[in-house]
Design goal:
With 141 residues, the protein is mainly α. It is 60% helix and 0% strand. The longest helix has 37 residues, at 76-112.
Length: 141
């Protein structure tokens, strides 16, 4: 529910929950501990929300403009547009990787603070944090 974005909460809380999950799974922080993928710890939609929205192009107003755009799109213009799109997608993927790395670093920092906490204590802290949310315990249809 949390990873799918069904429960709105702050990013700070999501990072704390991810750190508690790592503590529960792997015990204390170690560089040799197996790390799950970020998508298994943190909702991807939060990372995507940090990125700027794609530029919006207004639709062509008249039929002639669409016809000219269609004719030009098949030639060199189309190749240039495809190249621009590919570069924009590459920049967005790079930004997404940067955001993911900074989020994972914040989660690891919170995990390091949980040194010495056992698995039952980490699970209890996780549930105690979730219990504070409005709608905790309700059933969604």
């Amino acid at each position: 529910m949390v990873l799918r974005g069904y429960v709105p909460t702050s990013e700070e809380t999501l990072q704390t929950l991810a750190a508690l999950r790592l503590q529960s799974l792997n015990s204390d922080f170690s560089t040799h501990a197996p790390f799950p993928r970020l998508e298994e710890l943190f909702p991807p939609h939060v990372l995507h929300a940090r990125l700027p929205p794609p530029p919006h192009r207004p639709p062509a107003k008249c039929r002639g403009a669409r016809l000219r755009a269609g004719l030009l799109a098949g030639g060199l213009w189309g190749q240039a547009l495809a190249k621009q799109r590919a570069e924009r997608d590459q920049r967005l993927r790079g930004r997404l990787r940067e955001e993911g790395a900074s989020t994972m670093a914040a989660i690891v920092e919170k995990w390091k603070l949980l040194q010495g906490m056992g698995r039952p204590e980490a699970m209890a802290a996780y549930v105690a944090l979730v219990r504070e949310w409005p709608g905790f315990g309700s059933t969604l249809f």
